[in-house]
From TrEMBL:
It comes from the Eukaryota. GO terms for biological process: action potential; protein homooligomerization. GO terms for cellular component: voltage-gated potassium channel complex. The chain crosses the membrane at residues 174-196, 250-274, 286-309, 354-378. This is K+ channel tetramerisation domain protein.
Amino acid sequence: MWADLGRYATVADATDLYLRLNIGGKSYCIRKELYTEERTLMHDIVEATHEQRLAIVDGCDPITGEYYIERNSRIADHIIDFFATGSLHKPQNMCIEKFKEELAYWRISHDHTIFVCDVQLSTCCAFPREASLLKPHLQQSTTFDEYETDFDGAYLYSFRLSTWRFLEDPQSSVPAAIFAILSVLFVFASVFGLILGSMPEFQEDPTNASAYHTMHAKTSELEKLNKFRPAHTRNEEFPDFVYRPTDNPAFVLVVLEYVCIGWFTFEYFIRLIIYPKRGEFIRKTLNVIDMLTILPFYLELCLPLVGIQSHFKEFTGAMLVVRVLRVLRMARVFKLARYSSSLQTFGQTLKSSITELSMLSMFLLTGIIFFSTIMYYLEKDEPHSDFYSIPAACWWCV
């Protein structure tokens, strides 16, 4: 984007309208009027004085008048092209994480990426070789810097921005790292407690745990011998024994659940209060996961207010609501994605490959149904056969 300087009477006149940059060893002469995005780094450079520019860039050549910026020259063409055309294209064969890092440096929002580049923007060339739960999110480029400009002009700007950095950037300080580790431990503790709460041995009254296992094994054996036995006859061996293993978890597991939910609620609402754009905050994927983590717990607490009691086992509809809410508790597993850049990259890869994965799933489903049907017709007439239906044969095929 070199300029024709011959149209101007003096070099000073041209300098007022044009700016010379050297990005990663590649020279550009650009028109200042192109850079109208006020939130970008380029706007700050164009509008700054010479002294102010020296504080922003990495150097200046007094002979050529070029301001030097030590950044990736492969991306420089696309960055300059964005300010000229308003469209942002991702270079071919470039790691998405590196591309995002450059966008964060220039303070360019991902919203400017045109649709045809969406698939590439969600694909990384490789996963980090040494991934960990507390590995920095792209050295804060994909998590913190992306949000930083949203705090411009906000009430209590410095306090809210520093608090947001504390919550979102574990590498910013030792307390922030401790906070992130504590959050991960709460996620693991919550999932661990949820798993233990499903075991008969960890109920408030575990005395019938062995009897439950015996009844379950006996019932399973009877079901194999008689697939169409009426349901009301299955407990004939245990006529006075009714035990549901997940109804009354031990007190310590209940306390653990309350403590974890309290922490998750605190995390969610402190982020919601600090972030200035609350509507945008609620719609983001990681925050939706956070909401799904705590919402089932509070909805289950509210069920008695509308007349649904969890001990009303005879009401199928009421129990279905309770069970759905309890299944949704497993959404808290996905909270780990907030602290793992690898999980986030993996999720973006799955999103960008949804068409290919759908075709693969259809291919696998076709194969399962085909071979299950064959096994069903070959084995259905055998005594005590496990292939008493095509869906049952599907389990074997899987």
